[in-house]
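1st attempt posting a full record on here, be nice pls
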Amino acid sequence: DTSPAALSSLQSSNQQMVDRIVKELDPQVHFVAYAPPKFVAFRQGIYLELSLNSTLPAPDAGSRYKLAAMAFDDHVAHLIRPLLAYFKDEQTFDGIGFSTTVHLAGKSAAGTSEAVEFYFPLSSLRCYEKYDCTGQQLLDTGTVLINGERVALDLQIAEGGSSH
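the predicted structure (as tokens):
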């Protein structure tokens, strides 16, 4: 049930845990203060959406695919295991969405940013958490959006390819 009432009920029943996640993980996650974690409907499922900022060094600039891959490898992937520690019991939602704005550090990169969203099913996150799946396998089972458009993201190609 992805109705607004169901989402509101899920939010209410999990709000204490969500508040604890924000308080304890914010130094490493860099949550967006004006967009607190909330449950959203996405592709016939319910996902806990976390809004964060990812700052990458300007030399890492490149294609939007490279920026998305770097945001995953350097930021999102490191958050999965600490985040899943809060969800040890059976959950009443389908997955977690990481919505990040990728910023490039440095003066020359001012104004350069990409909106990247990663939606992963809990089963795939658990597989990754146990080291039974690679980051690429996790990406392949999830949904990746760059500036609102669905993309396929191959980490080796994106990070190893040309930055033109």
